[in-house]
Amino acid sequence: MYCHLYGCKPALRSTTASAMWIWAALLGHLCCLAPWAFVMRQVEPYMDEIFHIPQAQKYCQGQFAEWDPKITTFPGLYLSSTFIRGFTGIFCGKDFLRLENVVYALGAHVVMYRLLRRSLEPQRAAAQSLLLSLYPIHFFFQALYYTDVGSLFWTLLTHDLATPVPKKVLPGRLHMCLAAASGCAAVLFRQTNAVWVMFTFGIAALQDLQSSKWGDELLRADISPSVLLTFCKALILESPRLLARLGPLLVPVLLFVGFVVQNGSIVVGDHSNHQVAVHWAQLCYLVAVTAGTSGFGSTSALSPSCFKIFGSDVSKRPRAFILALALVTALLHRYSLAHPFLLADNRHYTFYIWNRFLRRPWFKELLAPGYVYAGWYCWRRQSLAQSGLWVLIWSVAAVLTLVPAPLLEPRYWTTPVLMAHLYAHEVPDRNDRRMMSLSSTFIAGVAFMLVNIMTLGIFVYRPFAWPSGEVARFMW
Length: 476
Hints:
Distance between the termini: 58 Å
Oligomer: single chain
Strand content: under 5%
């Protein structure tokens, strides 16, 4: 009778439908991942695993004072493995350690679904979260004992806990404290997550201000001097209230800054091979990957309609296009770096991309028009769903995490790529558009899985031997 009078049945049905769709998506994810987790048993610890697995096993045995100086990250991954086992030291073999990333991958899937449900209905959120979980670079490392998957999980969880639901107030103190704890875990997995914790701080503050008296100006899709001035003014005037609520998020950031000051470097070990650089070409790679993984629908980067809109924009602002093209060409020419690891290690696909294409005289510069188009597409796609300030905050976070990195490493793009996709989506208003969107997601998912089958299949079943006799495998 109570539900009949007050209308709780639709809410119950909505909750049931939401649970059904996310369980279906998780089952699909697990069905795609489980075979690879099984066949990976025949692969001995490889690449970074030769550092991570022995270090985790030392922690499992309580040997916390022993540390491999070649490890560059904080011990978050090893502490997590030890904590999961209750400090018992059992089940610390490579296969059990690798299974932890399966759990983290499913956890990241759930958090992505939660973020998508803020603006999408259950079936679309489930389909999109499954698609993002199959993103090839992310999916590849779900079967290995690397820091990437756990790093992504804690970063997304921090974002989910700290950012408000659209048109709602900021989460309460408990949520913020939990977000700060999750942020600490994220930084313990990977140092650059301190930037993404600050990204969460910025987005939470922006969303709060957009629902206040400042909203009309801050919701604009463009970034003009007046918008930036209003945003800065709002931050200053509202800072006491924002810091009182969002302040806990600054704890992991300040702790990380203290470590950098004391350590003299961002990385924990192997300082000589991980020096800070100026690598602006990383942003070109990022927008290319983000645009290239946007799907295959009517709004994808490869759709004729997007090319037509781009051509129209160029014809309206030819000087802006020429300036952007000149700037990108200059940055590619001057700031496309080749780390010694990239040049020497033929186990990575990037080794062949660089040596056969990007290192050729003027080849990388010839790609400048494509990068300009990809950048235009990413900006337009994000600004259709979010404000221009959101895109600016995301861009600053991407610059701070990628540009200082001298190594061309696809794993570094995962967090900004997935964060962009989580916030850029078309909200259909008719059944035909909904079906088109779901079919586009299905086609993209099939394409992702074909790439995953190819890359993981080559990794497992097509090893090769170095001149020394050591077994080598191709990977991202």
